[in-house]
Amino acid sequence: MTNGGSTARRPKRRGRKRGSGETNGSEGEVGGEVGAEEGGEGGGTGSVEDAGGKGKSKKDKDKDKKGKKKKKGKGNSSDSKSDSEESMSAGELAALMEAVDEKKKLIANLRSKPWRMKRRLHVLREAQEFVDKFEGALGKGKNKALYAFKIMMMKKWIKFLRDFENFKTACIPWERKIKEVESHYGSSVASYFIFLRWMYGLNLVLFALTFGLVVIPEILMGLPYGAIPRKTVPRAEQPTAQDYSTLMDFNGYCKYSVLFYGYYNDQRTIGPLKFRLPLSYLMVGIGTFGYSLMVVIRTMANNLDVGGGDDADSEFTFSWKMFTSWDYLIGNPETADNKYASITTSFKESIVDEQDRQKDENIHLRRFLRVLANFMITCTLGGSGYLIFFVVKRSQEFATRDDIGWYEKNEVEIVMSLLGLVCPPLFETIAELEDYHPRIALKWQLGRIFALFLGNLYTFLFALFDEVNNKLDDEMQIRNASIWFTKEYYANFSRYNNDSEATPPPINPADAIRGPCWETDVGIEFVKLTVSDIQVTYLTIFIGDFLRAFFVRFFNYCWCWDLEAGWPSYGEFDISGNVLGLVFNQGMIWMGAFYAPGLVGINVLRLLSSMYYQCWAVMCCNVPHERVFKASKSNNFYMGLLLLILFLSLLPVVFTIMTLPPSFDCGPFSGKEKMFHVIMETIELDLPSFVGSLFTSLANPGLIIPGVLLMVLAIYYLNATSKAYMTANNELKKKMQMARDEEKARRNNKDSTNEVMKDLEYLLPGRGWEPDPEPEEVKEEKPAKKTKVKPGAAGDVKVQKDVSLASENPNGKGPVTKQPKKSKGPPKE
Questions:
Q1: Residue ranges of the TMC domain (predicted)?
Q2: What count of Cα atoms within 13 Å lies in the side-chain half-sphere of residue 248?
């Protein structure tokens, strides 16, 4: 091809460069490079070759032409592209880099653009294609391939992270089931199941700690069943040890198993690994509370509401309600209607609240009724506590008798479960006298139910520890009797065989004298209380929800009134009662896990079955709430109750470890004065001597008291700092509000609304000493003479637009209230 031919194609290629360019300068240069690359690929020639075509001979051109045909025959278009990229100058690379950065910024900030979605998608697609196409050209020379490889690996890594996050979300247990409940009943009902799943995860970790460090080592490395008295059923109990009634009371073989405290041996080390079981038992008991405390506090910190919509003192209350009240996860039309009605009701309540503040009422009567209601509820709480104490005392009497029935054996659990069912509706009925706002009444109701549960539990503990003290008094006599029995056995054997050096056979573990083992008895009471609570809860759901819904569904057609609209109707899911039941049950688990290590496993099974059972009950038997609340308002309230009951559950366990002496013939701490002496024994025997002296120095009251004072000062300092931050935040809010007011006033061309700024305006130079401007005199204009107007002509008439009939009359004759009468002819002169 001749030189002229190559030059003839150049304008065409340049035209493609201009056609593919962008509108702005930098993007136009990049578009030119795109056109150059496309032209080089399509025509088989490059811009570098054209630039050097003038100085070449005809033979060189023919050789170049043959080489280009070979390249084209091979289909390798990347060489021409690389040649065109190598021809890019430093300015072009800088322009390309700038254009790529602009596109990346556009992709990052595309959400903030006030564009329609169609335009956003179009711009996003173009920007992504541009970045993908030209990002590899930012390298220089040999680094281009490395840069392209890095970009590719970065994209692969980002995609892997996104897929891994999706995989983790898919691995969350019961996610689809909870989403289904959430779409039908809103996030408030789903919050209970999320809380239930969180409790399941917490108990799963506690189960792993207990079974991994206490139960499994005892099973694998400890003495087998029947080796020692504490692991053997007494001979008097063996005939009934496998009866169903005995096993349901957790006696017989259940009592002498790994479920309870008394089964574990007191050897310092067990097995070939020299595992220190007593130390592990104590540390797991303490670590259970430590881990639970850390998780609860961390969850409360993560659940802090950073939004302003839920704060009672926040500004723009109606704006927050208007734009943030809707639950976008609702997928059921009935739930959506209820949510719509709920939002409407919340607006009405906000208006009615302001009216209630200005309403006059008989304050003395209202105070009397509230005092009366609180007195009645206090009497109810006191009566329930006395009833539990009385029942526990009766159970101690029944324990010494053999002619008792099923009710006498389970009287404590039955009474506590019935109190939990009867007292909350009674509290709700009495609370009608107080006439509180529904939100305040709900908090009072939750607090009273929590006080009922906690009071019943602590009354149960006081009565139980009273029984423990009685058993500790009898334990010394039983211990002396067992020692006397052992000595008499050896003495009688020697006397009978007339050989003082003969070794008597060991006593059968089933025939040995047993101590009371009060730790196992306390653990049995907690396990029975937990199991009875599970039974009552499941039976309540079956009768109160399933049978009720079954009756309403199938008997509505043949009944006297509408069962769905009237009584009994379908049941609603009781969020507060179920959450408080979970909190109360978890408190029993924390208390009883030290005395019954198997209680954590029972609770894991309970939570697992509750998830499926209650999800089925909600979807099958319940209807959405008439008033749908957002879940974020109550998350930390429930977690606060859980933190409180965790602290109150810690007290009995610490009292047991530090004060009460352990049983002499059962449990890992038998033979010691106090349970915590295991730690002191480990420090003395297994650690260097300076460690023991270090712990002794740290236990000195001279160090503990200053440490406590330092902690108090640190808490005071942090509290003062937080108050200062709150004050600063309030000041910033005021300044922001003033700035918004100033902006509104400036936008509306009004005077400043800030009184301080009005006072400071007089101090500005040239403003403070100027006298007030005198009002200008308004000159009265003489009325102009009327001009003659021909009929049908408008003349010199000034039309005033947008003048209402009630506006001021321009002629000064008063307001115009009637339509002017139509004149038949021209006006008279």
A1: 517-632
A2: 8
